[in-house]
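Hi U.,

Before I forget, here's the chain from the pilot set. I'm dumping it here mostly so it's searchable later in email.
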Amino acid sequence: MKFPSPFYRWRPHPWHGLEAGPNPPLVVHAFIEITPFDLVKYEVDKETGYIRVDRPQRSSSQPPTLYGFIPRTYCGDRVGKLSPQSSGGDGDPLDICVISERPITKSEIILNARVVGGIQMIDGGEADDKIIGILYNDSFWQDAHELTDLPKALIDRLQHYFSTYKLSPGKEKSTYIADIYNAKRAHEVVRASLLDYEEIYGG
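Structure:
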């Protein structure tokens, strides 16, 4: 039997074993950890690559979009420098929110996303940017190329979610939104995260 190329004898690690995308920073791969239907925060286990239960959502907020990360990215010094109010990157892969017209209820999936903007979030003093993308070939959103092409209510929901999703009774708020940026700036952040990854883990 002839195996397809590439052929993985074992499941590749979603952070390190997948490509960043077909045409980064314009079109990237997104590995989805949670969906708008999840009431539990799931997160990839960095050692094994499997999905781990991080915590039940502390509030009634649910993610407004699909949420995951771009493989082979790292939020290090370069990403931190693009976020002047931070002390540096958070040391995680670059997060991405993906908008889709049709409901997608499964996590642990890979999809292509067209980058249209981003949210500059600060978490505990560190840069924790959220890239915003459109599901590639989604005909409903095919004319959306910037955040200004999206409904303001959707961007407001994303801001509210990331401003509150780590709130815990009796504890100080650790996150805030420093900026909302356009597609050009989002492309810069993706490029920076790719270079940060190469520096830490190699090409």
